[in-house]
Amino acid sequence: MKKLLAIVLVCLLAMAAVTGCASQKTNTEKATEAAAATADSANKTKISFVLDWTPNTNHTGLYVAKDKGYFEEAGLDVEIVQPPEDGAEMLVGSGKAQFGVSFQDYLPPALAGEGAIPITAVAALVQHNTSGIISLKGKGIDRPKGLEGKKYATWDLPIEKATLKKVVEDDGGDFSKVELIPSTVTDEVSALQSGTVDAIWVYYGWAGIATEQAKLDTDFFAFKDIDPVFDYYSPVVVGNNDWIAKNPDATKAFLAALKKGYEYAIEDPDGAADILLKNAPELNAEQVKASQQYLSKEYKSDVTRWGYIDPARWSAFFKWINDNKLSDAEIPENGGFTNDYLPE
User: How far is CA 163 from CA 201, 229, 246, 270, 310, in A?
Assistant: First the structure.
């Protein structure tokens, strides 16, 4: 019996020694892998990308590219950050972020005058301006003239109000009769239902879809359908001029990986929506899914090259800005954008 116990004890000690060695080997392997990962990360080009707002379907391709490893494959370490109060433009212009999201109608103060900052639009995320005015059906705001006597939620921005004035007056309306209510609406459904305002400027692919999900019966007119000059680019990717000039290959690699992300979102809207929801679980899943279906047709729309910015359309909007003295300094023709870094 004692001999048997001795044999069992020897076996247990041997097993413990083997397990200990295996454990030690596993820990060593883990340490080696961690060191390799750190070295690999150190060899990658680090890029900070700042959003314009909280995550939404304008950004889906970005999250897909990160989730699917497209940035890693391109030798990039991309961090996605939220915007500061003064917007993505200032963070990119300062060099604290290399790329970010902006809108062509936000760019004039950044591109001209004493406050100009070194940024350039390098890709269009959506090919056509999907923004316009939404209202409850029955309010009579199915066309710009219908805004007369109605409450419109304004950001109180010069270009915004000039745009609204032009479409109202071109439709035979009197812009002075539009009641401008200073308001930053974050819940369009509640604002329309409560009657706080009658009309809101929205991007249909997000807020318009939200009203559909809420079963609201609405009217909507898009600015690009009223006047082609308002078919500007919104949103766009902007980059820091100095960083781009010093890192042209990394810029091209970044945009090539981003293109793969957006083309995935075009081909598989549901799968792309799932990736966005994984990264932003606070979003309404039904709205994200419906919005993704809508935008999958808008990212490239009628062009074959993702991200392409049409010089004629870009310059036409800025010419209107110049003609109406809406910029502190004149924006040069073809100023503020480039297609040079886009993948074919």
Answer: 11, 10, 37, 35, 21
Alpha helices in 240-310 (DSSP H): 241-246, 248-267, 269-279, 285-295
Question: Rounded to an integer, what distance in angstroms lies between the CA atom of residue 274 and that of residue 325?
Answer: 44
**Token representation of residue 182:** 């200073």
Residue 16 has pLDDT above 90, yes or no: no
- CA 135 to chain centroid, in Å, comes to 25
Written as one letter, the residue type at 212 is: E
Strand pairing partners for 101? 237
Strand pairing partners for 21? none
Query: What CA–CA distance (Å, rounded) separates 332 from 334?
Result: 6
Alpha-carbon span 214 to 253, nearest angstrom: 40
In the numeric block, which tokens belong to residue 140?
Answer: 């009579």
- Residue found under tokens 């304008």: 58
Q: What is the pLDDT of residues 70-118, one digit of tens each?
A: 999 999 999 999 998 878 999 999 999 999 999 999 999 999 988 899 9
DSSP-derived 3-state class of residue 220: strand
Which residues, 6+ apart, have CB-to-CB distance to 56 below 8 Å?
206, 283, 291
pTM of the model: 0.87
Rounded CA-CA distance 24/21 in Å is: 5
Q: Among 310, 297, 291, 305, which Cα is nearest to 255's?
A: 305
For residue 75, the one-letter residue type is G
Which helix (H) or strand (E) is 214 found in, with range? none
> Encoding tokens for residue 327?
């910029």
Alpha carbon of 234 to those of 95, 104, 323: distances in Å?
A: 22, 6, 21
Residue 87 has what pLDDT?
A: 85
Which residue, 118, 81, 59, is CA-closest to 236?
59
